[in-house]
Amino acid sequence: MTTTVDRTDTRTDARRPARGQTGRLLLRLHFYAGVLVGPFILVAALSGALYALSPQIEKVVYAHELRVPVSGPDLSLAAQVDAAQAATGGTEQPVAVRPAPNPGDTTRVLYAADGESSSRTIFVNPASGEIRGDLLTYGTSGALPLRTWISTLHRTLHLGDAGRLYSELAASWLGVVSLAGLGLWAARWRRTRKARGLVVPEKGATGYRRTLGWHASTGIWVLGGALFLSATGITWSQYAGANVSALRAGLSWQAPTVTTALDGADVGGGGEHAGHHDGMVMDAPDADPATFDAVLDVARGESVDTGLVEIVPPSAEGEAWVVQEIQRSYPTQVDVVAVDGDTLEVTDRVDFADHPFVAKLARWGIDMHQGTLFGLTNQIVLTVVALAIAALVVKGYVMWWQRRPTRDAGRAVGKAPARGALRDTPWWGRTVVLGVAVGVGFALPLVGVSLAAFVVVDSLLGLRARKG
């Protein structure tokens, strides 16, 4: 790899003959998106790395609530629920119970709390009935306050719905920037035919060339992870996520739901992102604590055979109890059965094996994104990929600074790649580019809006430069 090649890749001059317009266009897109959206991607990557480590941090911070000495056989669930009821004053009914999955774990008795998918959770020693803690937990994962705080930082920067725009912008553009970077990497490989210099930094390189080598080689190694995080992150987003949901609904790719109404009406709900008691009626009928044991025994005789289960009493008269697996590690176990609390008959069941393949992929993708599918290994890989993405953003800004004109003290950073790539493209090429841009804009609305803003600003700067 020579210095001439590097300068051709990154310092395109408008006076050179028009060639390789696709590469020039990708370079300009990669540059502008990196500069303008880079801060959002950087924050998302760093907060994502922190979230990937949060399950392990949680085990240390909340060891008292989560773990107890193994001291004998477990009490009945009824006795454990009674202990939780005594601790809360008995004025509210539990909305779910999660029995201790393994020896030394605590049982969780969940009560309704303000906030979507949030619960007040009482942690009970299953052997003695001792109350080990009283904390707010979140979602199917049962995240405790610290992990919930980190999750909210990653998703919204604690700014509510307005903050969701930041994470959607980051997730949407991460995929676009990554694909543009892949196109630039492929173009350089075709010119140099030196694959080694593109997958590992060039030995002996200094300054800008050294930074570029690290940026390009790191990018190609984490490309798959970046695209995966972008695609799965979009499913949580407000606008693009709605498009994904509509597509899946139209193609019947959604996960089936269990029917809880004893008259056969389908009132079951929830999807991959749903919490355990979303939409629950808070004036639910009183649940006999002994029924928790009875319906769990029935479910154990069916497909619910993992340690991690949740028992949900009826939210209204005429509804069944629900016992569902909540194990998110591989092999995935999320089977669910509905049980009539009076007759103890199974009234409906949904097995993960019966989910459409795309619904299974969505389940696995979300669990891998959250670091639960493969446990600690999953969390380590996520952390490495997230930190590498953050490093790519920083390296990009360093290259921008290193390319500044050394003889122009008035310029603190390098110039943008030269205009004209789209103008020099044949009409059919411009049509394809416009069609792709419109399609991406509809699928990823924030990309479309921000891309239009980039074009407007760039056009105004171009007019200013010509007048100057």
From TrEMBL:
This protein's record includes keyword DNA-binding: no
TM segment ranges: 29-53, 169-187, 373-394, 432-457
Family annotation (Pfam families): PepSY_TM
Record bears the keyword Transmembrane: yes
Coiled coil, from the record: none
InterPro entries (alphabetical): PepSY-ass_TM
Keywords: Membrane, Transmembrane, Transmembrane helix
Name under which the protein is recorded: PepSY domain-containing protein
